[in-house]
Amino acid sequence: MLARWDWLPETTRLAGLAKTWGDDVIRGLAEKGFNEAKMLKMTKAGIDLKVINARLAPLFEDYPGIEAFFRNAKVFEIDDSTVLLKGRTNTIDLKALGTTQNPHETTRILLTIKSGYTQILMEQKCVDEGWNILSNAKRFNSPGYDLVAEKDGIIKLMEAKSGNALSWDNFKNYFHKLSYSD
Q1: CA 78 to CA 93: how far, in whole Å?
Q2: Is-contact 150 134, C-beta < 8 A?
Q3: Beta bridge partners of 107
Q4: In a designed cystine with 83, which of 53, 95, 102, 175 is the match (CB 3.0 to 4.6 A)?
Q5: How many CA atoms lie within 13 A of 47 on its CB side?
């Protein structure tokens, strides 16, 4: 007789995670902010946890605080069937990240994660500095400014950028030459 995975007690499922994927993978994902409940949801959707762990590793080298981004995602925000990590301003397709064979798709998903993380980090920094948030982006990678903040009558129009090599060309749509006439 076969039992469905979701019929088994949670302790049995958690022990099964370690036996199936290995302690190193489970520990690696836990260090990346994924608790057992999130890992169980990912495996239920057919995601290879070794692949997810390996593909997320470079993010944690570039952005040491990003584990809080994943840790703060509530368990219910990970959809059971498609494993979309849903947050206030983002949807990250973890199933596609864990199953795609297309390196361009992997890069696209990782850039979405970087974008989301930098936007959240920028907003937290502004709040910590006493700025009042007037407007923020509804979604990552949406048109317009990522954040509009005000403090002491000064308005900040902010765009979060992440990447290893930013140049002024990345910002050409945000700066315009002003000319004044008397």
Answers
A1: 10
A2: yes
A3: none
A4: 95
A5: 30
- For tokens 């990970």, the residue is 78
Which residues are CB-contacts of 58 (< 8 A; sequence separation ≥ 6)?
110
Q: How does residue 55 score in pLDDT terms, banded at 50, 70 and 90?
A: very high
Whole-angstrom distance, CA of residue 144 vs CA of residue 137: 7
Three-state DSSP string of the chain: CCCCHHHCCHHHHHHHHHHHHCHHHHHHHHHCCCCHHHHHHHHHCCCCHHHHHHHHHHHHHHCHHHHHHHHCCCHHHECCCCCEEECCCCEEEHHHHHHCCCHHHHHHHHHHHHHHHHHHHHHHHHHHCCCEEEEECCCCCCCCCCEEEEECCEEEEECCCCCCCCCHHHHCCCCCCCCCCC
- pLDDT score at 1: 43
Q: Which residues lie below 8 Å from residue 52, measured CB to CB, with a gap of 6+?
A: 29, 42, 94, 97, 98
